[in-house]
Design goal:
3 copies of one chain form a homotrimer. The first copy, chain A, has 310 residues and is of the alpha/beta class. In chain A, 36% of the residues lie in helices and 15% in strands. Chain A folds into 2 domains: 12-132 and 292-303, Aspartate/ornithine carbamoyltransferase (Rossmann fold, 3-Layer(aba) Sandwich), CATH 3.40.50; 134-289, Aspartate/ornithine carbamoyltransferase (Rossmann fold). Chain A has 11 helices and 9 strands. The longest helix of chain A has 16 residues, at 17-32.
């Protein structure tokens, strides 16, 4: 039996392959059928020490669509923290008001600290540059839904692979399956060597390249991330990189991508992906964002113990 | 059959007389009887890119009184927009989290853009100086409720008739009915000529005057608006105007108004209407504000398709 | 019959001993049994003109756990007040959207003004330095729950007794019962003479001292408050006071306190109470904070008229 009852959802590293598949399967069930009374009487506290409208709204919608209730705050300035209260005290008190906590914090490791402090399930909605596991679950769910499998796929990651936490977490998660990975980035924004070493040890086959053209005809999935100007000391260097990693309908028409290619992006996008892409069959990033609802429903229902796998 | 299922509520210009009467009649039904489970399982997203506590709270209360749920934000600073995301992307994502959107935005035309972008119903809760149609519905509802009709009334509009969007929209809406309009304002704040021309073409009889005294004994309804200091280059000019358009119990006692006169105001008021007025039988502006609940219930139930007229 | 239907909860001075005992007894009932549909169809407006995350979240959770709904704001900047609207107008309008109001305001007396303005029940969640009656109810509830009685206890109050409104209100409330009070504070932060006079007149036995050691072996309950730096003209003086009123496991081990001593604190704490205290059997302040839920459930259910005492 797989049960995530009372489990904290802090890092993807805490999950077995079996547990991942269970969450994906439960997400599908959630998407196919409404569960309007599943979490009646349960209260979720959403503690956003740093804003993230998309993530907060999708957790709130998920909770409410299952009949649960939500309390919370979005502004650290409006809390007792402004009076000097410790994070531990704040969450100890909130734990008495709620059945589970979703926390987003600007510091790496904050979610684990919260989970170690309280007795109710804690879900990490992003802690600093560290982890954002529910994003990875919905990335996996979208790949699985649009490609029908997580195995034997050629998956490209493009953009800022050095600082992009969604890429690190997704690559780690996909290592449970038999997919080939292409890491496409400027030399200064490559995947962290430690993570590559770990992927190798787990038997992942991958290749590091600098241009999409080299592999565009082979890819089943392309996962894009935003390249942030702040990562470059030299604005001219940033301008060059930005241009060569910009995706549009025209870029894709020029390169010989598979007709079945699916493009994902954790959003928000700024310059790296043109709106012309939106109407192509490649674009699944809005569908990906919408998957936040069933995937977060599945996670909430699991940790609150109302759903288990026999 | 009148159905507003899946309709966007952007401008009063989009509604036929039959549709207006249907919303007013449904609002009455909503006021007379609780509908606690009508919108169970539906989620409303309230996207307030500019604050409007009254409007937001009345939409939220309306939704919740019908068993629906609400997600949303009130602060553009706390959203992905701060990261440079386009309005179109933001609302495309939110459309996957909700059954309908209420949007308030500081730019004219923003609500129409949102409606054109998403596939779920969008309700305009005010876009710049442009439209605020649910306010007009509740203005009409209050006139109809307190006077028993929308026809054959003498209706005065007083204050800032140049910039006041509620006045423009209400005058436009009332043109569907047979009422006489008096536009009472300082010369610099008269009704826009284009709108007057349009009213004429639609057969509306009206008169422009500068002082309430000229018509006070004839009015059935007086609709007041705030005169904002920022509209005057010369503060002395503002002071004069302010004084002569200030309403109080004493002003009304002096002028020979009908005993059945009803005074409306979209609120908030600042200086233009004295608290002494509140306890007179003329004052219906708080009742008007409270009508926001049944009127918005009617609109939400209509666009979400749970109420139709046979 | 005791009924608090339609009552405002503004100051502890408005309650009889019988009413206090009724709320405590109803709080116990609320804690022991879920009431998921008790307030279905009721809407609570939480108007926080000044932030108080803990209080707001516990009211919201209480309301929602009983099936009620919540609307509100936390930021005065985002309201019509910013446009110059009076507090009276704001709450008159909100009264049309809700079944009850919880208000927190930075001005003394604001809650009474709100209660006098609207026809629905108003609960004071803190007005300036004045009153915070639901905090006092949960303080009483915690003492009663952990000691089994409110009579014949030796109760110490330590810290800032001059400005601490929770202390004033709790001492006033406890005067209904037969307990001995020790007021432990630096000379500059003693209890207000007027309040001491009133306690005397009501037959309370008490003693003012400057050091916990003098009475530590006699206390059944110790109620701590934060000493704020701003209260001292001289930072050196503050440093001295702070040191001598700092509580830790070590402090308590040195002094000969009863094994059954219970330590309360309204929280947030900053320096005055060490985390080492948390795991001792003395510490009940997190339990005290969590009591906010059943106590506020009891108060909401009472004023909304769904619970009465035969």
């Amino acid at each position: 039996m797989v049960s995530l009852k009372d489990r904290d959802i802090i890092s993807f590293r805490d999950f077995t392959k079996e547990e991942i598949l269970y969450i994906l399967s439960l997400s599908k069930e959630m998407e196919e059928k409404a569960h309007p009374d599943l979490l009646k009487g349960k209260v979720l506290a959403t503690l956003f020490f740093e804003p993230s409208t998309r993530t907060r709204m999708s957790f709130e919608s998920a909770m409410k669509l299952m009949g649960g209730e939500v309390i919370g705050f979005v502004d650290p300035g409006a809390t007792s923290i402004a009076k000097g209260e410790s994070l531990r005290d704040t969450v100890k008190i909130v734990a008495g008001y709620a059945s589970a906590i979703v926390v987003r914090h600007f510091l790496d490791g904050a979610a684990r600290l919260v989970a170690d402090t309280v007795g109710i399930p804690v879900i990490n909605a992003g802690d600093g540059s560290n982890q954002h596991p529910t994003q990875t679950f919905l990335d996996l769910y979208t790949i699985h839904k649009t490609k029908g499998t997580l195995d034997d796929l050629a998956i490209g990651f493009i953009g800022d692979l050095k600082y992009g936490r969604t890429v690190h977490s997704l690559a780690y998660a996909l290592a449970h399956f038999r997919s080939y990975m292409y890491f496409i980035s400027p030399p200064s924004l490559r995947m962290p060597p430690d993570l590559l070493k770990e992927l190798s040890e787990r038997g992942v086959k991958f290749q590091e390249i600098t241009s999409l053209e080299e592999v565009s005809d082979r890819l089943d999935v392309l996962y894009c991330t935003r390249i942030q100007k702040e990562r470059f000391a030299d604005p001219i260097e940033y301008g060059k990189v930005k241009g060569s990693y910009h995706l549009s309908k025209a870029t894709l028409d020029r390169s010989k991508v598979k007709k079945t290619l699916k493009i994902l992006h954790p959003l928000p996008r700024v310059d790296e992906m043109d709106e012309s892409l939106d109407e192509t069959p490649y674009a699944v990033y809005f569908q990906q964002a919408h998957s936040g609802i069933p995937v977060r429903e599945a996670i909430l229902a699991s940790v609150l113990g109302v759903k288990e796998l026999d």
